[in-house]
Design brief:
It is built from 2 helices and 8 strands, in the order E-E-E-E-E-E-E-E-H-H. The protein is of the alpha+beta class. It has a single domain (about 1-130), classed as Ribbon (Umud Fragment, subunit A). Strand 7 and strand 8 (about 90-95) form a beta hairpin. The longest helix has 19 residues, at about 100-115. It starts with a strand and ends in a 9-residue tail after the last helix.
């Protein structure tokens, strides 16, 4: 399925109006750095996975928009619509399943930790989110 994304939370990697290819995949195959489409806040959101854990036998994820300073509330696998497999930018198509992009996407997550820590007020929150086990209620 292809979808034109609106918004700026994933900029500059995904810009307002970019077209993405979404595929339903087993949630067990999702990794930190993958960009997923999920339902939250009574709308559809595309954000990057920054933490993946199992809680009470169920996979739970923490996501964050690249352009945002704070992570999203926890989501569980029932919220996930699919994984973004590619991004069309004009004439170019970025295949996010290529090894190069898997590494880049993971490095974006790691670098966002350091960028967050350049703003001391948000460093502790992001550090706890990125490195600590997921705790608390899930977003429904």
């Amino acid at each position: 399925m292809e979808l034109r994304l609106l918004g700026t939370s994933m900029g500059p990697f995904i810009r307002n109006g970019d077209v993405v290819e979404i595929k339903e995949v087993p949630v067990s195959t999702l990794r930190v750095g993958d960009i997923i489409l999920f339902q939250a806040y009574n709308r559809i959101v595309a954000h990057r996975i920054i933490n993946k854990r199992t809680k009470d036998g169920q996979l739970v994820l923490r996501t964050k928009g690249d352009a945002l300073t704070q992570p999203d509330p926890i989501i569980d696998e029932s919220n996930i619509i699919g994984k973004i497999m590619s991004v069309k930018k004009g004439n170019k198509v970025l295949n996010l399943e290529a090894n190069k992009w898997k590494v880049i996407n993971y490095l974006i997550v790691v670098s966002s930790f350091f960028i967050s820590c350049s703003r001391p007020a948000s460093c502790g929150t992001f550090f706890r989110t990125f490195f600590a086990p997921i705790k608390g209620a899930m977003l429904k």
